[in-house]
Amino acid sequence: MNKKLIIAIVVLVCLGVGLIKYKEYRVQEANRIITYTVKPTYTNTPSITPDISNPDSVVQTYYNRYDVCIKRNFELPDSQEVNCLDNEVDFLTESLITRLKQNVGSDPRLCASNTPAKITYENAEITGAHATVIVHTHWGGSPRRNIKVEVERQNNEWKISDIICTRPNIN
């Protein structure tokens, strides 16, 4: 009987020590200071000046800047996210800016709720003071999507006046 009593005491001591160590661990975890590597805060999107005399350049520069900014935001904590809409007035008409600011839900610039793997462009079709550029968003294994971007000349500057989401292309 002495052997059984000794074994029971050893088991209880081991359980007690284990519970004490577990509680100490939980307290340490609760009090632990979490450190993050802070990436630099981006105050703006890349400073690329568009060639406002060319609708292709306006559309490509706008989408390249927007894409870079959105992808940077995925890398940053919420408190450091950058407003990717800075300087839209350089690229978009006032009426389009107003419509985009009222949007709720998926991103009307990319016609999606996430970022594409790649963005490509067709050459602008220009008719007088209006032009159309087809923007292709590539999503890895999914079919690419085409975005019809309308551009208009205002005071000798090309500005994006409308962004029209189309159905995914099977190519």
Provide a brief overview of the structure:
This protein has 171 residues and is α+β, with helices and mostly antiparallel strands. Helices cover 35% and strands 25% of the residues.
Q: Any overview of this molecule?
A:
- With 171 residues, this protein is α+β, with helices and mostly antiparallel strands.
- It has three helices and five strands.
- It has helices at residues 2-31, 55-75, 94-101; strands spanning 118-121, 125-127, 130-139, 142-154, 157-168.
- Strands 1, 2, 3, 4 and 5 form a five-stranded antiparallel β-sheet that branches.
- The relative contact order is 0.13.
Q: How many strand units?
A: 5
Helix content: 25-40%
Low-confidence stretches: 32-47
Query: In terms of quaternary structure, what is this?
Result: single chain
Rg estimate, integer Å: 28 Å
Distance between the termini: 81 Å
For the sheet with most strands, the description reads:
5 strands, antiparallel
Q: Classify the secondary structure makeup into a structural class.
A: alpha+beta
Overall 3D shape: rod-shaped
- Summarize the helix and strand pattern as letters: HHHEEEEE
Mean pLDDT: 77
- Approximately how much beta-strand content do the residues carry? 15-25%
Figure out the total of helices: 3
Keywords:
171 residues; alpha+beta; five-stranded antiparallel sheet; 5 strands; rod-shaped
